[in-house]
Protein 1
Amino acid sequence: MGEARDSTLSGKVLEFNPIVNGVDFLDSAISNLADSQDPRNLKYAVLHLQAAIEILVKVRLQREGIKHVFDDPYSVDLNKFRQGDFRSVSLSAALKRLDRVAGIQLADKERGALNFLSKERNKLQHFGSTSNHEVVATRAAAALDVLSQFIQRHLTPDAPEQEVAHLDRAEGLIRGALTSIAAVSWARLTRIGPELDAWSGIVIHCPDCLQMAWTFLPHEGSSRCHFCGRDWSQEDQLATAVEYVENVLGESRHVAVKDGGGLPIATCPECEFAALVMVATRNDPNTYLTAACFYCGFSTNKRLGSCGRCGTPTLDPDDGICPNCLNDLVARD
Ligand SMILES: [Zn+2]
Ligand SMILES: [Zn+2]
Ligand SMILES: [Zn+2]
């Protein structure tokens, strides 16, 4: 698609406002992908996703200077630019320019996903696709995931004022797709798998999106959900423990209070904050046998002991009394 005035647009573009166009195409691509059992919807999902990617990549390129989005940077004409009446750079050339002028590089896998979509778009546009329906839907979802990463990493940071609301809308649309379209969530889980495998600590459920994708390390910047992107290092740690218990374990604070019990949050034997919760992990997803402290990050899958006097967990399963109670008793003597 070398033309700024895109052939898939219906009617004439009166004003060249790429960010609005790009997010509109994204919106349409996602709704079509949601109903992609119908081959016609899948076709428009691919066509419109391709348009969204091309436009949004150029939106980023344009921030480096208008000339970069012209196919021929020497033929820059501001009037033509305003009217969208110029030959714009191709997607592959735009990506090369982004690398050169802004140091933005896509990984091989990401480029692969975008190339597949481009080829499929060409087939659809000219011949109608002969590709396997499931494969196309899966690969479209992978390309959407690449776009989502691109928006998060390269468009949202330092976005000009007039783009912020549109980018927020784009991120909201993608969040919706992640929870409502199986192929989209599958594409994301496939992409983050290696990141989660490489994590040396525990990976637990995200209390927000409920995916097992939170690289757990309270207080550290890397303590975030790789599925929905929520940065848990920025949250109040004790409130997060409660959120985990309520959302992941399904324990209601109200019921717990009514029954006269408390939430299953114990005192951590390391930091002594009430933030120790039994969690499931990526290595052991079906049982909740790992104790994790949402305050200091201590975690163990070894059996803990319990203080016979106050009930607080102890590090040694054979310990009958916790250090606090011991101090207390010693002080009384
Ligand atoms: Zn999440
Ligand atoms: Zn702790
Ligand atoms: Zn005790």
Protein 2
Amino acid sequence: MDKRKDHELLREAGKMVDRCDRCGTCLPVCPLFGVKGVEATSARGKNTIARALAGGGIEPTREVLDVVNFCLLCRACVDTCPAKVPTDEAMVDVRQHLTDLAGGADVKYRLIGGVLKRPGVVKAAAAALSILRRSGLNGLFPYGMAPEEYTRAHFLTAFAGPAALGQKAPPSAVTVTGRTKVAYFRGCGMEMMFPEAAAQTRDILKTTTSLLVKQNVCCGLPHLAHGLREEFLSLARQNIRLFEEAEVVVSDCASCGATLKHLSSFFADDPAWRDRAAAFSGKVMDLTEYLEKVGYLPRQKADVVFTYHDPCHLVRGQGITRPPRELLKAAGSFVEMKEADVCCGGAGSFHVDYPDAAAQILEKKRRNIEKTGAAVVVTGCPGCLIQLAKAAKASDGKFKAMHISQVI
Ligand code: SF4
Ligand code: SF4
């Protein structure tokens, strides 16, 4: 391990959090401060600890690692912060630093990372989860990791209505034609947890273009988030190389999309990969962003009321809020939810590592969904969908949770 690089990361994190003047504007928007009410759970508290660590004022103990791990990386604080302190990025850098000092990532994260970097193993895991679902044994699986997947078949009557009369896509700087080489980025979460939704995405994309089929590897976000940065960079290089032929790369997973769009920043100082990474990041689009550009209209207008949950990685990671809502308005009736852009508590493996805090955050989300009276809560990230499926179950059938590709 390159220790020089380690300390560079800590110094970088120190520089980022140095801009925090402890004003406290971020406290009310942090979901974790909302459920715990403890300073160390807020961005301000985390920044204070990171600054002390970078300045040598405190030792890199297990307690410090616990503080930096207890973060949803939801960026709600960054959006609100007057100084735009990137607390989430600083936490990822400090995690990497502490992980390297400890001699490597936790065995749990190494195992998960090992699975996710092998497409063959991801496929095998997807098949195993599918068997669990079909046999009805998925309920025994902890943390909702093999959720029942609602499909359009659950709304056969509602989805049998007349074709929607949608509106034209707004003008776009990017030209996408029927001849544009468009590829689908198959995210691990979509493939393992929501294969029906992933199949719907592919079907929708095929109506707009002749789709390039690529066997990509994981986007690397789980590796980046848990101290496996070298593996993240290796996965990134594989994906950059693989998609060089494509002109557009579409993702139906907010987390993959946000990660892929930001890859260029990780290669900015690498002359061998800088331009290739920038070209790759520049052609990644979220599914709804792409569909808006090509003027896609939902297949049918259903007699269903939808509400929408903004994935953190879509609203704050990519600044996308309008396209999914416009698609839902064209696909049925739409009602806005209170605090639609507040994290659901999923945050990758956060809901597994901290189930109590995640459940408290989700409970607020469930109440907000129920208040809308919507029959379906829709989102664009498998991580959120796992959480929302749990909320749907707890609602006693008041609503269902679906991926956007299943309803448009
Ligand atoms: S990224 Fe989210 S969870 Fe982490 S400190 Fe900021 S608001 Fe809180
Ligand atoms: S992170 Fe930003 S909003 Fe929060 S205390 Fe620091 S400067 Fe204020």
